[in-house]
Amino acid sequence: MLSISSLARLEVKWANVHRGNDGFYEKWHANPYYELIVVTDGPIYLQVEEERLTVHAGECLFLLPWQRHCGWKPIDEHSGFFWVQFAIDPEPLLSHSKDGTIAKTAPPLPEFSSGELRTTAANGVPLWLAARMETSRRFEISLLLEQLVAELRRPQAYYQLRLAIKLWTVLELLASGLLQQHYVDPALPGSFVLYRRIVNILDEYYDKELTASQLEELMDRKYEYLCSIFKRYAGLTMTTYVQQLRIQRACRLLSASSRTISEIAAEAGFQDPSYFGRLFKRHVGVTPQAYRNRHRPDPPQL
Which of 37, 36, 48 has its CA nearest to residue 10? Predict the structure, then answer.
């Protein structure tokens, strides 16, 4: 299995559509990039290092950098495949079996983390892909790859961005298809959908005094249940998250405005400036004034 972070940078280096035996059969290939081979019409007889494979229409192969491959048997003149070479940064994680080969196991279901919150850094979602897999989205993927090849042949401004978007779409379709092959229902649980609704409301109303009854009315759920759902996915309480949002806003105002600390406290949602000062130091480690002194830009020199 290969795991590619959704935050990775993809760069398409080369792509083409190949038909028949010209330039492929009995000629070894190897390059420093990852390769995706999607068979449109098969079978294709491909040798990867010492292993000889018969790959059928709708199947995909991922090859690692410098992995040697060639055709080991002539193919029909109408048989063919898309061939994409691309770089990934950071490198994918590889799951290996005991014999050292890439593992052929079921992909794990996506995990949910505090990366959904505005106050935490995005940590990305791993896309799990098999070294060899079959896709039920064959024609949709073929259309995307046709567009990708055409874009490379006649590049225009920002073509690298469009290539990356198309390749990401192909990888997402493959990863989603792999989940559907191994799980009856890979849909996100209803509790996570509810959690995202809670996050959206807290992000919007953090500077207001939102009461438990008001939140119950907005969400049509008991406050205690909402608290448990939020804690399950975020790993912290709603109160702590609201405090983090307010402190985050205050940090921005302290460094980018000339308002008084009392005014900033009120705009961030704190009615008591003294309480704001204590909470700010607990979260940030310094007083609001000390933070302002450190982060206020120097005045322009005349």
Answer: 36
Cα 136 to Cα 238: distance, rounded to the nearest angstrom: 41
How far is Cα 55 from Cα 77, in angstroms, rounded to an integer? 15
CATH code 2.60.120.280 region(s) in the chain: 2-182
Mapping DSSP onto H, E and C, the string for the chain reads CEEEECCCEEEEEEEEEEECCCCCECCCECCCCEEEEEEEECCEEEEECCEEEEECCCEEEEECCCCCEEECCCCCCCCEEEEEEEEEECCCEECECCCCCECCCCCCCCCCCHHHCCCCCCCCCEEEECCEEECCCHHHHHHHHHHHHHHHHCCCCCHHHHHHHHHHHHHHHHHHHHHHHHCCCCCCCHHHHHHHHHHHHHHHHCCCCCCHHHHHHHHCCCHHHHHHHHHHHHCCCHHHHHHHHHHHHHHHHHHHCCCCHHHHHHHHCCCCHHHHHHHHHHHHCCCHHHHHHHHCCCCCCC
Q: What is the mean pLDDT of residues 182-188?
A: 70
The fold adopted by the segment(s) 2-182 is: Jelly Rolls (2.60.120)
Report whether 182 contacts 109 (CB < 8 A). Answer: no
Q: Please name the fold of domain 190-295.
A: Arc Repressor Mutant, subunit A (1.10.10)
- Tell me what the pLDDT averaged over the chain comes to: 89
| CATH 1.10.10.60 domain locations along the chain | 190-295
CA dist 165 and 286 (Å) reads 43
Q: What is the pLDDT of residues 27-42, one digit of tens each?
A: 898 999 999 999 999 8
The pLDDT of residue 179? 85
The total number of residues shown for the chain amounts to: 302
- Residue 101's pLDDT is 47
Sign of CA dihedral 39, 41, 46, 52: positive
